[in-house]
Structures are given as structure tokens and as C-alpha cells.
């Protein structure tokens, strides 16, 4: 985030602190709603899925074949948690594993055709929801929000 010369919490008065309190409040509401929405969406892919599986499906759809260790690092969970989540997705026929041609000891995970189809349907519905909810926004504002959220996510990844 761009900051003035004093930075957050510096002695320049309460305005900076108020800005960060407002940010915390709005992010808390957004994240609570996003968790609930992801839970609803992932259950549309399959009723037995955990809400955390949606992020895995997004990553696999966007990036294709990935090692479990790469997925765990991206999502921010341990190898055991990732293995459990991938096993559940595999048992439901949504993902499959194959040997990594670059390293025979490792496996690559990818969406199955069924997983891709179910995920695509849900993702399209989610995007349509965003379009409805932001119908009164200017496209430039939507693009700016996406840019700022991307910047925030990049900062969190590095942090």
C-alpha cells in the first residue's frame, strides 16, 4: 500500500489509524461473506466438498497440472492438509493424479473432465452474481477494485 511519509500508526494523528480500522472492518465483512459464498459454490460442484476446496479448483483450472506441494504453498496449508483435501477431490472424481514426467517420485494433480465441467458451471454462476451485484458500478471501478485486490494479495503472499 502506498503510504505517506509517516507510515501506519505514526504520530501523524488518528486518521491513519482510522483508515486501517476501516480497512480491517470492511475486509472482515468481505471475507466472512466470501467464505459463506465459497461454501455455497463448492457444494454446487459436489455436496460433500469442504469450502476450502473451491480455491484448489480455481488454481487447478487456471494453472493446469500442479504438484501438491505447489498447491499447498499457494493455498497456505501443510502437506498433510493438502493430501487430505486432494484425496477427497479425487474420491469424488473431480481431480486425478499422474506421475510427474520431470520427477518420477512426484505426482501432478489436474482437474478431470467432470471436475472441469462442474467447476465451470459454478464459476460461471459466480461471475454472473458479481455482474448482478456490481451492475451499478462503472467498469473502470470494477477494474480498479480488481487491481487493488491483486496488489493486496501479492503483498500478503510476500509478507
What would your notes on this structure say?
It is a single chain. This protein is mainly alpha-helical. It has 6 helices and 3 strands. It has helices at 15-45, 53-63, 68-75, 79-91, 113-133, 139-158; strands at residues 66-67, 95-100, 103-111. The protein has a 3-stranded antiparallel sheet with strand order 1-3-2. β2 and β3 (103-111) form a beta hairpin. It starts with 14 loop residues before the first helix and ends with a helix.
Question: Which structural traits does this protein have?
Answer:
159 residues, mainly alpha, three-stranded antiparallel beta sheet, 3 strands
Question: Secondary-structure blueprint of this entry?
Answer:
Blueprint: H1 15-45, H2 53-63, E1 66-67, H3 68-75, H4 79-91, E2 95-100, E3 103-111, H5 113-133, H6 139-158
Antiparallel strand pairs: 1-3, 2-3
Helix pairs in contact: 1-5, 3-4
Short description:
With 159 residues, this protein is mostly helical. 65% of the residues lie in helices and 11% in strands. The model is unreliable at 1-12 (pLDDT under 50).
Gap between N and C termini, in Å?
12 Å
Kindly state the percentage of residues in helix. 55-70%
Q: Structural class of the helices, strands and pairings?
A: mainly alpha
Number of strands: 3
Query: How do the strands of the widest beta sheet line up side by side?
Result: 1-3-2
